[in-house]
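Protein in question quoted in full.
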Amino acid sequence: MASLARIRSVVGRSVSRVGCGLTQFGRREASTRATSSGKEFSHYEVRVRADKGGCETLSETMMCFGAQSVTLSDLHRGTEREEEIFSGNEKWNQGEKWKDTLVVGYFAEREACTTCIASCEEVLGEMLEYKVEEVFVETHDWENVVLESYQPIQISDALWIVPTTVEPPEKDAVSLMLSPGIAFGNGGHPTTKLCLRWLQSSIRGGEEVCDYGAGTGILAIGALKFGAKAAVATDIEETAVRITEVNARQNGIREGDLESLLVSSTITGRIPGGVESFDTIVANILMGPLLELKECFLESLKSGGKLGMSGILATQADEVARAYSDELEDVKIETLDEWAIVTGTKK
């Protein structure tokens, strides 16, 4: 099979022809056909068998001559001859490929398929065994499909996270409203559940709370709904700060009760904002930052204040607990699935 250097040399001489073809392909309207659920749009696939020594060369050559994308897979996938080579395993990391590889190129037009194969055969100096197939893909209203997939998530007996597109399932329960499709998840992660359950059980009323690494702000909003007097929500991402503000309004949080702040990832000293020291700090982040922010958290927490730390695996909880054991009392670890929360009270 030809070297990549030779391929690039030939492609360089052919670039104007290929470039024009790609522009034409981009303007093409795909074939459609009606179905019971809407429409199907078509594209064309060229399937070529290659050995492991030539599959990547063939793939790059097809991309040079008009393929919109190319995939490689085991020709014998799903059979007894399938080889255990996949992304992330040792053989893959060492550059191994399947002995018999299926190279699939994707095109907008059938003519582009045959033109590409002819060019590849000329450059590679061999005849290719290939098959061209028109493939129809059903279209969906993906926005509504995604929205319909969001359902209320029960956190505890009287606490739900509810998408704004549906009605709260229990009128008398506390409902935390989140817009579907926002960044930072839907609030259903085990660490979010652990933090909310801890806040619900520990807030007595009138506290000043910090949600450090707030994301959606769901923990700060939850604390206020549980009876906290004020909350500060911090994050290192500007998007999170804006999302927290939106979610606060959607949950009926009074202006001034929640302060959403953009902070540095290397914060030192006290947590910024209008609260000098907090009754409660909750941080659902990662183990590294939890350990790095130890002095910041302790300096910002009142004596007798409560600290809840999550975003960690159950296997990491002991290390976090040990790091804070000299400054906290009544240290506890709770787990959910493979995740954990470490809580304690400042001495």
Q: What stands out?
A: The chain has two domains: 4-139, 147-346. The radius of gyration is 28 Å.
